[in-house]
Automatic annotation (TrEMBL):
Lineage: Bacteria, Bacillati, Bacillota, Bacilli, Lactobacillales
This protein's record includes keyword Transport: yes
Name of protein: Amino acid ABC transporter substrate-binding protein/permease
Transmembrane segments: 291-312, 324-342, 354-374, 453-473
NCBIfam families: HEQRo_perm_3TM
Leader sequence segment: 1-27
SMART domains reported in the protein's UniProt record: PBPb, PBPe
One Pfam family from the record: SBP_bac_3
């Protein structure tokens, strides 16, 4: 006992020492969470090795070295990233973000570091030669981008409609297949995509040039903003910034674009593309399965509780179950995910990790569906079973546990397996809040090589393989319980 007590005291002392020393370490080397849209080359994208490259990424890396701070990148769609900064879930955003008067009301920006302009691109065979040819047509723009703002401003003047997309590659493909006639995009981004093999051409000169800036929530993270400005001034002064830009856009420097284009040419088969990205795909699949398993187990517990409440004699319990199921079955999963990850931190000021927010979303959404069929499963058991058990002197609770529930659960097992499959597919929605599961992994790969059809074919095949295995499991379980 004495040895055990001494060990406990030693562990407690160690824990206290860590807690005391942690602030000093943090003060010496601050760590920040910074969001980025990794589908915006040449400013930010993920390589086949899983690291992040591009003008913004290299610039941030150099600044952090000079200003002695560390950071964790949080990739998500641009629109979601903007909201995450406003909610205080992340400390800053670097994503080719145009500095506008409207954004200045919500963000504090660092020193502007790159001036761009908006161009319009069409297919090679398109009859659209300029803005005046857009009357009565539909164009594509990326949600929350300067290109979308510009398209919106001139839409009435030129008489066209706009369709919005969350990532550039989907927008380009929409134009390429003819659903929309043109895309509005930042000039360097569009030029880079075309050099990577996107079958579009730029037909307008850059318009409404805006400066890009590093942003933080207005009135917050002033120290981070100060470090960015100081570090940026240093890399401009010693020529590092020019080298970074030339690496991706300039002539006569290390021609990364040519190397990337050559890599695309070599990817002539789905198999070679799979081999190059199998590590990232496996990691994304593992994250998907992790979300699914944790989500379905906890959602199952929550759903069974709701189902039990739904068959209780108490009107209040039944009403509570019905109300909860109605609310969370009625809310779109994407809305629920954004509310938990972005809305709640706005109200409470407390950050919620993306994985935690994703699991909570699955619990509430999938749990509502489970609660509905659990309640229905219990009700499907002949009422005479419960009456007979009660007539034998069993209390209501014991009669439910011993007689009704075993029969009801037996009927529900195929429904549970089916819900497992649905949950697996629903995890793809959580990519919107920055969880890098299988679908988001595909998006990141496409941003690098722009081979949307092949990558989505691989993603679909992986989902189908897992779902097929689960379907076999469902059939096997169903036969065993008959």
């Amino acid at each position: 006992m004495r040895k055990w007590l001494m060990s406990l005291i030693a562990l407690a002392s160690l824990a206290i020492g860590v807690l005391i020393s942690s602030p000093a370490v943090h003060a010496a080397t601050p760590n920040y969470t910074i969001t980025t849209d990794t589908t915006f080359p040449p400013f930010e994208f993920q390589t086949d090795k899983g690291d992040y490259r591009g003008i913004d990424m290299d610039m941030l890396k150099e600044i952090s070295k000079r200003e002695n701070f560390t950071y964790k990148l949080k990739p998500m769609s641009f629109n979601a990233g903007v909201q995450a900064v406003q909610a205080g879930q992340v400390d800053g955003i670097v994503a080719g973000m145009s500095i506008t008067d409207e954004r200045k009301k919500m963000f504090d920006f660092g020193t502007p570091y790159y001036k761009s302009g908006i161009v319009m691109a069409t297919t090679d065979k398109s009859k659209i030669k300029g803005l005046s040819d857009l009357k009565g047509k539909t164009v594509a723009a990326k949600t929350g981008s300067a290109g979308a703002d510009y398209a919106r401003e001139i839409s009435k003047k030129y008489g066209f409609k706009i369709t919005y997309f969350n990532d550039s590659n989907t927008m380009y493909n929409d134009v390429a297949i003819g659903n929309t006639v043109a895309a509005f995009e930042d000039q360097p981004v569009m030029a880079y995509a075309i050099k990577q093999g996107t079958k579009l051409k730029i037909v307008t000169d850059p318009a409404k040039g805006n400066w890009y800036g590093f942003g933080v929530k207005k009135g917050a993270n002033t120290e981070l903003l100060k470090k960015f400005n100081t570090g940026y001034a240093a890399i401009v002064k010693d020529g590092t910034y020019d080298k970074i830009v030339n690496r991706y856009l300039g002539k006569g420097s290390y021609n990364y674009k040519k190397n990337a284009a050559d890599k695309v040419e070599k990817q002539t088969t789905i198999w070679s593309l799979f081999n190059e990205n199998k590590s990232a795909l496996f990691t994304g699949l593992v994250k998907t399965l992790e979300l699914t398993l944790v989500g379905i187990v906890l959602a199952g517990i929550w759903g069974i509780l709701l189902g039990i409440l739904g068959v209780m004699p108490s009107k209040f319990a039944r009403g509570l179950s019905t109300t909860i199921i109605y609310i969370f079955r009625g809310l779109p999963m994407l809305v629920l995910a954004f509310f938990i990850y972005i809305g709640i931190p706005n109200l409470t000021g407390q950050k919620i990790p993306a994985f935690t927010a994703g699991v909570i979303t699955l619990i509430l959404n999938e749990g509502a569906y489970i609660g509905a069929f659990v309640s229905g499963g219990f009700k499907s058991v002949d009422s005479g079973q419960l009456e007979a058990a009660r007539s034998l002197g069993l209390p209501y609770g014991k009669a439910m546990r011993k007689v009704v529930m075993p029969q009801g659960i037996r009927l529900m097992i195929p429904s549970f397996i089916n819900q497992f499959i649905i949950t697996l597919k629903d995890t793809s929605i959580l990519s919107a809040i920055g969880i890098i599961e299988l679908t988001q992994t595909g998006t990141l790969i496409i941003a690098r090589n722009l081979q949307g059809f092949r990558v989505w074919l691989m993603i679909a095949a992986l989902y189908l393989i897992v779902i097929t295995l689960l379907t076999w499991l469902s059939n096997w379980v169903e036969k065993r319980i008959k």
